[in-house]
Amino acid sequence: MPDEQHPSLPDPAPAPVEAPGPPEADDSHSVLAALRSPRRLRTEALAGLVVALALIPEAIAFSVIAGVDPRVGLFASFTMAVTIAFLGGRPAMISAATGAVALVVAPVAPRYGVDFLMATIVLAGVIQVVLGLLGVARLMRFVPRSVMVGFVNALAILVFMSQVPHLTGVPFLVYPLVAVGIVVIVLLPRWTTAVPAPLVAVVLLTAATVLGAIKVPTVGDEGALPESLPSLLIPHVPLTLETLRIIAPYALAVALVGLLESLLTAKLVDDITDTHSNKTREAWGQGGANIVTGFFGGMGGCAVIGQTMMNVKISGARTRISTFLAGVFLLVLVVGLGDVVAVVPMAALVAVMIMVSVGAFDWHSVHPRTLRRMPRSETTVMLTTVVVTVTTHNLAYGVGAGVLVAIVLFARRVAHFTTVTRLDASDDDGQRVYAVEGELFFASSNDLVYQFDYAGDPQDVVIDMSRAHVWDASTVATLDAIRHKYATKGKRVTIVGMNADSAQRHDRLAGNLGAGH
After folding, report:
1. Which partner for 382 in 40, 150, 417, 486 could form a disulfide, CB atoms 3.0-4.6 Å apart?
2. Where is the STAS domain (predicted)?
3. Measured between alpha carbons, how far is residue 58 from residues 61, 65, 413, 452, 488 in Å?
4. Looking at 88-142, which runs of residues are DSSP E strands?
């Protein structure tokens, strides 16, 4: 994880909020370099194949959550992956049908029909494009590192929890098969990395169950696979305000949850690969992918953390080729090789996903030594993000709660950094000078009014603000209250030393806020 700083008070001068993404030529060069290198191309292709296999059961499961046919989830994963490979701003990141989006749109299809679901996804994509062009990705700067750590840990836990249903109420032989798969994934890279270990585990366990006629749950048991290609469809919904009233709330939720999960996952991949991605392009690219998905009968989606980690961290993919091939292989597997895919044991995919969750979890963040050194506020923010995300299964709630707790704790901490010092020891010259030091905003300026001796001070009071900064109207209102308290006792207050930004804010608001402000 990068050394992400906690939210801090903004600098008076505007600063760029997002470093420019790598030039498009760099992305193109990366893809071309992979195409020219057989070894690199093999890594990208095999990574795409492993991801495609892992996407199948999850897409089917998410379809069940959304109350639609498995084809809707599978087609969504295909169109999302292929489209984002061209439009996205984060190479090697995987986008597909996701549980977060499935939970949001779950009421739509059962209540209003699949056409309303498709219209919802198209509208969500339009909203994402607009938000992307408006620069919503810049808000990522306000996500503290502790929230990012909590996000990673929570998603690792959710990935593991999603495999538990495949390990309960199943034949006993599932457990040794999962164990063998984990052993292969852990030990094989010590001998060779020519072929991704997850792919070897899938092929090995599939061959063992087929040749040994072992009866265990398979991918085919999760739901029927499609037998035809997706086709362009126009949602048959009335073009009325009533339709907009129905789909708009769901579309907005899909857009926000999808962007949040995608941008956080992109940031995580940036850290793993030590490269920078274009978050703004990723934001509107997600919108474009959802628009395409909606018109091809898919249920929408966003970046998927589990398969992205499988692609980048375990399989070693680094370019858009792996993302594109993941979508292509997914379609080929479910349509052209559906009978073969159907016999893949779920135990093999469970083993892969368990190792993905183990690899994604930030174990350093929960090490006793780290917890002893880490400020309690940081640990509190991280745990809040984890608990809320895991409890609600909603990334937006978890990250929102984590950011809110971080803001509150930060405000409390900064509130104690403001000091008021009396500079002179006597009032023989008829003047009292106070020096105010620190960052003054709603939390730190509340107690400022109590730091002065209104009754005991001489007629002339000077407040030196040369080592302070005024950030909001609350502070200006506090300074007005101080002036008023001295004025009621017939004393005069002079404020000196304000920097340009503070003086501009103070001059604009002083005396104009009213008694209630």
Report:
1. 150
2. 421-517
3. 5, 10, 43, 64, 71
4. 95-96
Q: Please choose, from the candidates 398, 28, 90, 399, the residue with its C-alpha nearest in 3D space to the C-alpha of residue 267.
A: 90
User: Could you identify the residue written with the tokens 């198209």?
Assistant: 122
Q: Which residues contact 511 (CB under 8 A, 6 or more apart)?
A: 480
**Cα 139 from chain centre:** 11
The span from the CA of 46 to the CA of 56, in Å, is 16
Of 82, 77, 22, residue with least CA distance to 270 = 22
Name residue 11's amino acid: D
Distance CA 283, CA 126 (A): 11
Q: Which two tokens stand for residue 27?
A: 């992305």
pTM for this prediction: 0.70
Query: How far apart are the C-alpha atoms of 283 and 289, rounded to whole Å?
Result: 10
What's the pLDDT tens digit per position in 18-50? 444 444 434 434 798 888 899 999 999 999 999
What is the rounded (10 degree) CA torsion for 296, 330, 131, 317?
Answer: -160
Q: Are 282 and 49 in contact (CB under 8 A)?
A: no
* Beta strand residue intervals within 344-491, DSSP E: 419-422, 431-440, 460-470
**Polymer length in residues for the chain:** 517
Give CA angle at 203 (201, 208), nearest 5°: 95
Read off the pLDDT of residues 338-393 as tens digits, 9 standing for 90 and up: 888 889 898 988 888 888 788 778 898 899 998 888 889 999 999 999 999 889 87
In order, the DSSP letters of 287-351 are HHHHHHHHHTT----EE-HHHHHIIIIIS---SHHHHHHHHHHHHIIIIISHHHHTTSBHHHHHH
**Measured distance CA(66)–CA(467) in Å, rounded:** 57
SS3 262: helix
Mean of pLDDT values over 4-8: 39
